[in-house]
Amino acid sequence: MTVKYDYSKLRGLIREKCGTQSNFAKAIGISGTSLSQRLNNSVPFTQTEIMTACKLFGCTISEADEIFFKHQ
């Protein structure tokens, strides 16, 4: 069984901090298509992408759990 993650909090932070998904994708070093695949649970976020996003958002690693690992 594949785990599906709820990225609603991540989507809100993207809008708040970056304005657009495209800006966020560039900031973490991936394409818009790659970000879309991640947000749609087709491809997992890498540890590097998660760490980069946490730095960008100013969140702690423990907060990353709620942002990146909340199950649907």
Write the CATH fold name. 434 Repressor (Amino-terminal Domain)
Question: Any idea how many domains?
Answer: 1
Roughly how many Å apart are the termini?
A: 13 Å
- CATH H-level superfamily: lambda repressor-like DNA-binding domains
How many E-type strands? Answer: 0
Tell me what the CATH architecture is.
Orthogonal Bundle
**What structural class do you assign from the helix and strand content?**
mainly alpha
Give the overall shape: globular
Q: How many H/I helical runs?
A: 5
Question: Helix amount, in percent?
Answer: 55-70%
- What fraction of residues sit in β-strands? under 5%
Relevant terms:
64% helix, 434 Repressor (Amino-terminal Domain), mainly alpha, 72 residues
Summarize the structure.
Residues 14-64 form the HTH cro/C1-type domain. The protein is an all-alpha fold and 72 residues long.
What does this protein structure show overall?
The chain is mainly alpha-helical and 72 residues long. The chain has one domain (8-68): 434 Repressor (Amino-terminal Domain). Helix content is 64%, strand content 0%. It contains 5 helices and no strands. It has helices at residues 8-18, 21-28, 32-39, 47-57, 61-68. The longest helix has 11 residues, at 8-18. The two termini are 13 Å apart.
Task: Please outline the helices and strands.
Elements: H1 8-18, H2 21-28, H3 32-39, H4 47-57, H5 61-68
Helix pairs in contact: 2-3
Organism: Peptostreptococcus canis
Domain HTH cro/C1-type: 14-64
Protein name: DUF739 family protein
